[in-house]
Amino acid sequence: MFFLHQETMKILFACVLLMLLSATVLSGSNIQPRDTSSATVFPTNETEESIKPQPQESYEKFKRQHINKTMTKDDCNKEISTKGIYNRDKTCKNINTFILADEKRVKKICNGEGKLNKKDRMTYSNTKFNIVVCKLQNPGAKKPNCVYKGERLTKRVVVKCEGGFPVHYQGDKLNFAE
Fold first, then answer.
1. What's the average model confidence in pLDDT over 21-29?
2. What's the pLDDT tens digit per position in 66-93?
3. Where does the signal sequence lie (predicted)?
4. Which residues on adjacent β-strands are paired with residue 173?
């Protein structure tokens, strides 16, 4: 019985040493331990700020900043302020475009109703959309003093697609030859 207890203690001691060794190695490097509750863990050297958002997260931001089916050209100031559309340093964006369509139609650009340009990796819509282009009238202004003038146009839109979702509004074109 004494022999069995002694062997168990040796195993426990070895386990404690391995845990301490692991903790020492992890604390002395850039490797970040991840939550192991539900996934396989791989070491990473990424900082939290450099982790790229998933397509669905980026799409939610895209929707907030660029899709508004009922907007008019006179709604720029209200929409940009309400939706908090500013540069990271809280300065006003020089330009922001809203697509006047429902989410389903805009998403279709990335799912068969757009053409991927292999040079710039952007997707060009096959059809034209009504859009409102909001242009800043007081350059250099900071929130909440942004003043925009809106213009309603009908153009093809150019977006970046990831995972079947539009995640970045690149611009608009009258046609592909532009």
1. 45
2. 999 999 999 999 999 999 999 999 999 9
3. 1-27
4. 156
Give the other-Cβ count within 10 Å of 118's Cβ: 7
Which of these is catalytic: 55, 168, 170, 171? 168
Give residue 61's Cα distance to chain centre.
Answer: 6
Active site residue 5: no
Catalytic residue among 58, 65, 66, 109: 66
**What is the DSSP annotation of 85-138?**
-B-TTSBBPSEEEEE-S-HHHHHGGGTTSEEEETTTTEEEESS-EEEEEEEESS
Is residue 132 within 8 A of residue 72, CB to CB? The reply is yes
Name the residue among 57, 161, 139 with its Cα closest to residue 93.
139
**All domains in the chain, ordered by first residue:** 55-173 (3.10.130.10)
